[in-house]
Amino acid sequence: MSTDLKLGYIGLGNMGAPMAKRLAQWPGGLVVFDVRAEAMTPLAEVGATLADSPADLAKADVVSVTVLDDQQVRDVVGELVEHAKAGTVIAIHSTISPETAVELAEQLRPKGIHIVDAPVSGGGAAAEKGELAVMVGADREVYERVKPVFRQIGAMVIHAGEPGAGTRMKLARNMLTFVGYAAACEAMRLAEASGINLQQLGRVVRHTDALTSGPGAIMVRDDMSDIESDNFLYESFSHARALGEKDLSLALALGEANDVELPLAQIARQNLAAGLGVPHRKE
Length: 283
Description:
- The structure is a single chain.
- Helix content is 49%, strand content 13%.
- It is α/β, with parallel strands linked by helices.
- The strands form 2 sheets. Strands 3-2-1-4-5-6 form a 6-stranded parallel beta sheet, with helices on both faces. The chain has a 3-stranded mixed beta sheet with strand order 7-8-9.
- Helix 1 packs parallel to helix 5.
- The longest helix has 29 residues, at 165-193.
């Protein structure tokens, strides 16, 4: 993909603004729009051209969209396509329903306009540094065209599959994050009830997660079928199962002693073996 292609960016919020700044020095130029005029000023200071409406970005070859929700995405895309030419790529970075990306892609394919869902993960700090993970749902040819653009905002750019696949991957990733938050809250309730300093616990968790990679450490399988005994993962996952079930049982006993309900820990102990792919074998 030639670097002389023009880029556009719509939506300069907490994530959109730092992402757009990473694109401001793109050789082909960047045009930006946000409903808040004050949000555009910092982009002008780093070289971007300001637009009066989304329609003004229709001449761009690749337009990134980071707005609030599905309806805003539909509204912005609708305004863009009234003026866009065939071959235009509209990249949706918002976390929306995967069905929205699929529907828009199907609707606009006859016009030759490509919808790419490319949600990101990593937060504002990673956006500032260009270290986001970008999960891309697009036809392979379109993915290859936009990949150099996404490499300006992300240290990891993954082709998840067809339009909609990027969002499905993001939803799975975020599910892990927020289930983890709920589990952390449960752990803090247990710690508090048993006389543990929560600030100190937090320091330990952050330190050890940095060393062990947290849940990502076990996300190395190709599928969710049971692991055969001759698989190189079998011994390590069996060890993780035994250690997890022991520690969860001890935590549940501590919760019972302190009258603290731990439903997530109960579910984890019940489902850990099957989830790891090393269920207990019946004698």
